[in-house]
Design brief:
It is a single chain. The chain contains 18 helices and 19 strands. The chain is of the alpha+beta class and 577 residues long. The strands form six sheets. Strands 11, 12, 13, 16 and 17 form a five-stranded antiparallel β-sheet that branches. It has a four-stranded mixed β-sheet with strand order 1-10-9-8, covered by helices on one side. 42% of the residues are buried.
Length: 577
């Protein structure tokens, strides 16, 4: 009996200790990024990697959060106290939380927001993400004019629709009627994470034309649910809970570890070892996981495409539209999408599969009669626009147009990041195919770059012809034409160097208040815009991205399925061992 009692007491102690250890165990979310952040300053980088530290360690006026039942999401005030209130014609009042503060306890108030937005729009600093403040989901009165002003056409800050009312109230004046949801969405991007003025001023150059704010963890101030515990560049970012954050109950992780893993094989190995809670398989690995019950999929707002350089001094036909048409028709998109990208969808059109999904009819633009008409036009040329005979005909026209002798062999250059295995495979495939399709008149060689963005690579040289790229725009889910926004001359960080007046004029028609007020009319005008895009070959669409993702068994996601405009809400997920 004594031995039995002793055993029971021993087991009780062990169980109690086990429960105590379990209760005290840290919840650590292990994830990764393909590349590290060039800066933590969300106002001055087009790299999407900046979204991760901005989301976890930054705060914005509003934040998208999952519904309680996990079926959808909604917006709440983060730095803002409540949702924005319409108080006059196109005027939205935003009241700030008095408890909102920086990680060091300093208050965040109206002066913080005004300083941050004014700095983001500063015409001298020329921040790369200024457009995300001026006209992402809403267009703020005179904000873009202020940012792009010249000596001949100056614009005063007082004329910009961003106003301080009192210490904890601001007003936003838009150029046209917008919805409350659009206002909330506009103020959730990394470009609208506030700046810590004392530190930002220290990081400004003497001429105030540049800033090193965010170049290191020490030169950036956190204000979100987490703070940066350590940042070993090119290796790992580590976040821990921010003790001064005002809504800690929304978040479950105690710590977040973000590893920088450029190579897919290394990601897969770490995943298989249990070192990652998330994995997005690529073309070389999806075959292994396509039937795994942990794998989920959805069509994204991205269409992979190839930018064409029209200013390469080494290419005598680079400025010809006929040349661009030749390249468009030389793309065997079915092979590229299925065999090289792996379980992706070929696309000879550019408006993505999510564009227009919030339409009145519930149909996306691609599903509508207008999107279908463009798809049918492309199919008349060949499967997804692929037609080697047409490609040769247009190349011959380009030679004639540019006065190039028929026996000239033109060597094109494709530049890509070798860590993107699907583009590497595509480049190698095209190196074999182009000489066949163009009967020896066109060859292709590759040049690679790493540690920089595609945009930065192209800024460094004109000696390239083809450059793989992908840009997505969340606003296209409501306004499908906005997926073309990045290819306008008015977008400061545009990835292309070919512009067309007809294309830009039609975009302006789509973006007019008259057209946006009539959804069916907007779809019609978007069809015209996409047809101009294809006729002028602004660039070459290749693949509609289908995203595959996996989550470890210990992850408890806050939503039932992928939600466009929100995703899986990973920042709100929980961990159960």
């Amino acid at each position: 009996m004594k031995k039995t009692l002793t055993l029971i007491l021993t087991l009780t102690v062990i169980l109690t200790l086990a429960l105590a250890v379990s209760a005290s165990a840290e919840k650590v979310f292990h994830t990764y990024m393909n590349e590290d952040c060039p800066t933590l300053n969300g106002q001055n980088s087009v790299q999407t990697s900046v979204n991760t530290p901005a989301s976890y360690c930054g705060a914005t006026l509003y934040r998208a959060v999952p519904d309680e039942d996990g079926a959808n999401f909604h917006y709440i005030g983060e730095i803002a106290k409540d949702l924005p209130e319409l108080v006059g014609e196109n005027t939205w009042r935003i009241t700030l939380r008095e408890e909102a503060c920086w990680a060091n306890g300093d208050p965040i108030n109206a002066d913080t927001i005004i300083y941050s937005f004014k700095t983001g729009l500063d015409p001298q600093l020329a921040n790369q993400m200024a457009d995300f403040i001026s006209d992402q989901d809403i267009t703020i009165l005179n904000a873009k004019a202020y940012n792009q002003q010249t000596a001949e056409a100056p614009v005063d800050w007082e004329d910009v629709g961003i106003k301080k009312i009192d210490d904890y109230t601001i007003e936003i004046i838009t150029e046209s009627e917008v919805s409350q949801t659009s206002v909330c969405s506009h103020f959730t991007t990394r470009a609208t994470v506030p700046l810590y003025e004392p530190l930002y001023e220290e990081c400004l150059s003497e001429d105030r034309l540049s800033s090193t704010y965010g170049s290191t963890a020490e030169t950036w101030m956190c204000c979100g649910p987490y703070v940066i515990d350590s940042w070993v560049y090119g290796s790992v970012q580590s976040y821990v809970r921010n003790e001064n954050y005002w809504m800690p109950e929304l978040y479950n992780y105690d710590k977040v570890e973000v590893r920088i893993i450029p190579e897919m094989n290394a990601r897969v190995e770490l995943w298989e070892q249990g070192g990652l809670d998330y994995l997005a398989p690529d073309a070389n690995t999806i075959e292994t996981y396509i039937d795994d019950p942990r794998t989920v999929e959805y069509a994204s707002a991205t269409v992979y495409h190839i930018d064409l350089n029209c200013q390469n001094p080494l290419n005598p036909i680079c400025s010809s539209v006929n040349y661009r048409k030749a390249i468009y028709h030389a793309m065997n998109r079915e092979v590229i999408a299925h065999d090289l990208f792996g379980y992706q969808e070929p696309s000879g059109t550019y408006v993505n599969g999510q564009a227009g999904m919030f339409s009145e009819s519930g149909l996306t633009y691609r599903e509508s009669e207008y999107g279908q008409a463009v798809t049918a036009m492309v199919e008349e040329w060949g499967p997804y626009g692929y037609n080697p005979e047409l490609a040769r005909e247009y190349l011959a026209k380009a030679y004639e147009e540019c006065g190039v002798p028929e026996d000239t062999v033109i060597e094109l250059i494709i530049g890509y990041d070798p860590s993107e295995s699907y583009w590497k495979a595509t480049a190698e495939y095209l190196q074999e195919e182009f000489p066949k399709i163009f009967e020896g008149k066109v060859t292709l060689k590759s040049t690679t770059y790493s540690g920089t963005s595609t945009t930065e690579f192209k800024k460094g040289t004109d000696e390239w012809d083809l450059s793989p790229n992908d840009w997505s725009r969340g606003a296209s889910r409501t306004y499908p034409y906005t997926c073309f926004y990045y290819y306008l001359t008015s977008y400061a960080s545009h990835p292309n160097n070919y512009f067309d007046d007809e294309f830009e004029a039609q975009y302006a028609v789509c973006d007019s208040e008259e057209v946006k007020a009539d959804y069916d009319r907007m779809l019609q005008e978007t069809q015209k815009l996409e047809e101009i895009y294809l006729e002028k070959v602004i660039h070459v669409p290749v693949v509609q991205d289908v995203t595959y993702e996996m989550f470890s068994d210990r992850m408890v996601l806050p939503v039932e399925t992928y939600l466009p405009g929100f995703g899986w809400g990973l920042i709100f997920a929980d961990i159960e061992e």
